[in-house]
Known about the structure:
CATH class of the largest domain: Alpha Beta
Largest sheet: 6 strands, parallel
Low-confidence stretches: none
CATH superfamily of the largest domain: Nitrogenase molybdenum iron protein domain
Mean pLDDT: 95
Number of helices: 17
Radius of gyration: 26 Å
Number of domains: 3
Structural class: alpha/beta
Helix content: 40-55%
Amino acid sequence: MAVRIVNWSSLSAEERRHALRRPVQQDAAATHERVREIISDVRARGDSALLEFTRRFDGVPLAAIEVGTAEFAAAETALDAEQRRAIDRAIANVRRFHEAQVGPALRVETEAGVVCERQFRPIDAVGLYVPAGVAPLPSAAIMLAVPARIAGCPTRIICTPPRRDGTADPAVLMIANLCGVRRVFKLGGAQAIAAMAYGTQSVPKVDKIFGPGNSWVTAAKLQVANDPEGAALDLPAGPSEVLVVADAKARAEFVAADLLAQAEHSADAQVVLVTTSSALAEATAAEVETQMQRLGRLDTLRRSIEHARLFVVESIDTAIEVSNAYAPEHLILQVANAREWLPKVRNAGSVFLGAWTPETIGDYCSGTNHVLPTYGFARAYSGLSLHDFVKRMTVQELTSDGLRELGPTAITLAALEGLDAHANAVRVRLAHLERERA
């Protein structure tokens, strides 16, 4: 199977737009309709619907939705010392980076007697979705549970799909315990999102849902976020994607390895190379085929690589323009003096600079968050951070002198909008102050 290599300059504007389309966007309407039906069923039947969907989609007849004490205890002995040390180190780095994001409250006296503030409050209840489609993703539990704890969200729950034996992944449970998440539910897919958004007999309703997932999970998050009775979403984080910008000196084996690292997530993941070198594109295509034979998830890799794209462009400037148009979840710059190109990058969830910065490190343990916008939403959304777990609440306080000075401005502006009740709320106070002065 040959990876498709395309000369970018030979494409028309319409062909370029089509070449940059994600594979999951082809059948989005059908996915959204099926997800709508699942959400409606969970709302109507609660736990009964959850158990039925888990049996149908995951092939697991669950005895209980929530992880019990015995299962938590068993998870503590399921991992060896090296695995535990790796988890501890990753948690420490993620905690260090996210604790640095804690900022002080803001207080500004905009004019004499007028004080404006911004204070922070944790979100009361958050639902953390940890995927386990092709493989369990305990790293996602770290990325979600660590900032939720730093923010101080009082209610924190995890939903993660069960394994074939009906248990949750032990690494996910260990991480949950280390990060202070005491309630974990063995639920996946759109049904898990619906359960957290609306609540069931077992699953508490949350105010905001976090975490990546497949196209069904993303569709569910978008739908419940559009319902006032549902739950807010962190960001549209669907099937994984990576775009590599490489020059002629890049190592084809590194580029191919980075492409395959994302392709193994799922059949609908997408990987893209944009390079100034036809020789590198050809060498990378060959390396993809060679390395793929040594890797475990060959079926998933082959299906994902079917819609991989290798573009040959005239310059690194053009490559960056292509990347900005695509707005990738992950952007790897395997070019000389990579940091010098960073100012030109406008749209990317997370950027990896240079040959020695594989995207894998960001997925697991550098400290940055790996929950990132996909589908091109990096044009407007940022990757997950501590700030997503808190609300920014503004406060204002005026003295009587401050109102005397600023009040007439508010009255004038209210009159411009024809809102006399707004003006009246100021006017009655100014009149009272005048009476007191008299």
